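[RESIDUES AND BACKBONE]
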Amino acid sequence: MKIWFKLAFILCAFTFLSAQIKAQTKENPVMLLRQISFSENNKQKTDFFLRLGEFYLTKAGEYKKDLDSAELCIKEAVKLNKFTGDKLDKGKIMFLDARIDKERARWEIATAKMKKSLNYFLAYNFEEQAGDVYSELSYMSNNDPENLTIKIRLKEKAIYCFARTRKLIKQANVLKDLAEIYSIKEDPDKAIAILKQSLSTFQFAKYKKVQMVYKLLSLAEVQKGDYKEALRYAHLAEKTAVHVGDHSVDMSSIYNQVGLVYYYLDKYDEATDYYERALVVAKRNNDIPFIRTAASNISVLLISQKKYQEGIGMIKQYKKLYPHEDKEFEMYENDILLHTYTIIKQIKDADVYYRKLVHHYGEYGEKANRRASVLYGFSMYHFQKKDYKSFYKSVKLFDSITAHTGNDLIRSNNYRLWFRADSTLGKYKEAIKHYQLYKKHSDSVFNGEKSRQINSMQIEFETEQKDRNIQLLKQKAKLQETRIGNDKMMRYIFAGILFVLVLFAALLYNRSRLKNNANRKLEIKRRQIDEQNGQLKKLVTEKEWLLKEIHHRVKNNLQIVISLLNTQSAYLENEDALKAIQNSQQRMHTISLIHQKLYQTENLSVIDMFWYINALISYIKECYLSDQKIQFVLELDPVFLDTAQAVPIGLIINEAVNNAMKYAFPDGKSGEIKVQFKQVENNKYKLMIADNGVGLPENVNVNKTESLGMNLMQGLAAQLDGTFSLENKNGLEINVIFDQKSEAYMHQ
């Protein structure tokens, strides 16, 4: 019974997950109205009206009067824009108008307006605003499987726009949304990788409100079946939300997630506490979807504790008190009711909800986005109805779609139900096969959860068999009693039958003892394997700790060397010697940054080059505290390399940028230095450092130069097995192209 409700909880977690949660702007409407009244600048007035319209659009609650107020602000902004002719304001007005239509559920009109505003922003190269529209367009369709690919493409375009305009917080937010879509696609590994990239970008931007990233990480770990990690991330989300003072409906979502993990760990008291907190927050924010979500979670808890009528009553009560027009959520509640009525064997009531679900999802749930819950409910229903043809089709389809998630709990219980059906039909060979699969997948779950009886399924099966045998014996006994009175010979026959049955019972008892002995031996072996696994995990943990300590000490030793060089420079008067020491310090720092990052991160094998190059350029700029007006342009893909390749790349950038700072712009001239790190082909990367300075003299032979920096860059490129080239192109351009040679990877 519990497995279906755990599947249902995941479905509920995604029911409103993909709906965009309105983040209310921190504006004072009274102050904005006063500024509009006193301002004589039409451009400023337009900006104030747009901000006021944004405030009403994102205001908490679902009120028509707020949308009417936002629409009035749009009309005033349009009038003012006719006088100012500001192109950016015109595009913002178009986009805000489209979003108002979206909130009024005018989906086709809103979509058309959004596409029009997107074309406008692209025509005038307003990339940040184009990114906003791409992201918003992804919410204009539901989460049917055929729409998810479109949503992913729109999110990726938004990320590209924000990356080009260096809007890190917006970029990180859309990365979070993209990961959410991969979770809906039941690809938790991809979702977790993107969420960690989002978290890294938020942290680089020094943005602290990352509670929803942790919440989504927890949900993805639940999909994988790693409840220990799921609980850690869920509490991180809660702790972060409290720290930043989040009182929005996001807090309801986070409390729901903590309750979900506790439910999976069979800690019902803790789960109930968090679901009730979620309901309070949702009611305080007057958010009907989250009110219904929290209420349905509590009802599922009641049902799973066999308080069936209380759970059913709560669903029907909240459906009446808080009506919500969402077909997918209605199907979720119908799924709960189908399974509950199936459990308590009220088949007529179950029939009603089965027909509704079949009408919406198809006979085998083939139209459902996340079919696992629907299919499992159908399987239980068919099992109770003894419709084994439909039952087998459902369980086979369930197994095929859950095979890739890695959640052994879900699959093991499906095999358990399959085993029961096989046993009922006398398919003992198949029953043994599915029982073994149940044990195989459930063992890994037992290691992560509370201890349970390993042979509970076998006991349940034997109990059912015993009950059926007793009923059969009673029927035979009654039949024999009627015949005994008529014929003495029948009495002997009956006695013979009883004797055979006694022998058969003795054989069954003997076989049962053999099975119990075999089970005890298997239990001893399992414990031995568990002990060995525990020792291996301990060794792995110690190894990771030692690697971190090595990186920490290497970083400290490099810092000591840098300090010694700095001390030595105080006693030198020779300018060339001082420059050599300074160059050495910078090279040491370039390597030190990598070991510092490896010490601070959980991943000890790869370096985030986006973070590393940004940190390295910031350090170089700090080293040149002069009045030179040199601008840096960074175009970096989110690339991850191992240290063997990251160190040469860092040293090449250090040498090239330092040379440009020293020689490309003589006499304090202003200029631009561009650093680009891109993936040019599959598994091939290109590093480019260019400046618009004086460049190299035409008669310089790069291969015969005695410059240490130039020789060093060429040697480092050779170490990468890459190509190194120089070109005078309105300045100097250095290109290094190399192949990836390790397990480093890149998220696209």
Observations:
- The radius of gyration is 34 Å.
- Residues 430-523 form one domain.
- The longest strand covers residues 671-681.
- The chain has a mean pLDDT of 80.
